[in-house]
């Protein structure tokens, strides 16, 4: 984390101090927070867009002296321009950014930090350590472990499963290693494991291959909700939907609906919530409306969603 | 972290959803959050008490349907009773606890979690993993590293320093190891290192001993503000106050005042903020007034405080 902070936020903080809960309202001073996220090009980023807007609307209503600038980018170049614009024309006091890619955004975000602004980085780290004040991210190890523990608990007498992996990345390795560690010593046996690249169509093909090669499959760890949908389609087409269940991951609305409804094929899900952008925005806002320290590293847990708690992870208005 | 959450918070959450920013205000449903902390028996816990009360006052004003129960305990037995009372008579929806000691509190807090309440543990972990939903704590490695980097930067030509350590604990080891790693390869030479047990009087004696044995001391890493005060007293009595400076740690008001005023003997401080209780209370509250995920692990950074940013870490109304 950044060692020295010499910025002008003291004034805003002092305002929050003087009248707790009504940040700066008494002196008319406004804190402007820039939020830069990828455009809603696929399911998860669609959720990010929804939850960012919801958090901003809610915070602007609660704290009239907080002002937000939201920009969405379809590519890293656009995101770099967005960040530069926020500095040049909006004089932001803080930046919350979910970087499209690490490398091209590292320099521009460092310049924001060097200018004394509070910087919050979400989900994907920058290429250089110590730039941001606050880092908010999911927990890939927990994501795999929670899934593995669910298989172990649900299959006390063991069983044969297949695993669809994501794009070969550190993230995918962390998830799969934690999953394997969690099922170790149980009777849960992985009879097939292939990369489905977090892609619905690719997962459909991989699952068709698994089905043709394995007469017995008791369950599928699809490790992602998009891949789960592809796998379920392949299972349905094979007519073997009564034989196996599927665990995805992320917390997609369609999947949470199936969990809520008690669908036997989708008995649970594991979160890797796009709503983490709302966590990051709220913590950054709290930095300006309170004395509470918000510099640090917040790793958001992956939670098992079952019919009992699914309501809590169901966002009816979200696209994801 | 807890795997299954089956509690009744869904209603509160849904209320927050329907009217963002005014949590549950429209249906009159109140969320009650219990806060259990050690009594203000010494400086740091004095700060914890101050910041807990400030966060509660601020949040109750902002969110009329949030209700808090604050209890302070002088010993672990009283804290166990406090927690049991909150469950029995106040029907809390969530508990924020800074445990007096890990072992005696683990069972009682687990019963709160098992009853489906949201549990936030602050600073000192419980004796069993996975009970709490949210863990908020300081960063002992950063505390030592930031201090070491400051010595290295401030003494480019090297120098002789003495180090006062805390009570022999994992916390102290983590801090000192990170400090030593940070000054490695620099000309900063540790000519004496002894345990001052985070105690002002003990630190005074240890520093007297250092002074009598070392004709040249250029700086002191007191590693704690209470120990820094003891060390400074010994230095002043020796008449060598012009020869050396002292770096403490925690963010005690007296020390931040000296940093602010440009005191040559106290050029900086490193935070280990008692205000982390406010962070924990605000994140727990956000769990009930928003959709933002708050389950996870938030490690609060230790920040270098210099005359440039000292205002931001100065709480004039706090006892600490």
UniProtKB/TrEMBL annotation, chains A, B:
Which region is the signal sequence? Answer: 1-25
Q: Where in the cell is it found?
A: Cell envelope
UniProt-listed Pfam families: Peripla_BP_4
**Entry keyword Cell inner membrane:** no
**Residue ranges of domain Periplasmic binding protein in the record:** 33-284
The source's domain of life comes to Bacteria
- Is the keyword Magnesium assigned to this protein? no
**Which keywords label this protein?**
Signal
The main place the protein resides is other
Which residue ranges run through the membrane?
Answer: none
List, alphabetically, the Gene3D superfamilies matched: 3.40.50.2300
What family is it from?
Belongs to the bacterial solute-binding protein 2 family.
PANTHER family (UniProt xref): D-ALLOSE-BINDING PERIPLASMIC PROTEIN-RELATED
The protein's name in its UniProt record? ABC transporter substrate-binding protein
UniProt source species: Fulvimarina uroteuthidis
Tell me the organism's taxonomic lineage: Bacteria, Pseudomonadati, Pseudomonadota, Alphaproteobacteria, Hyphomicrobiales
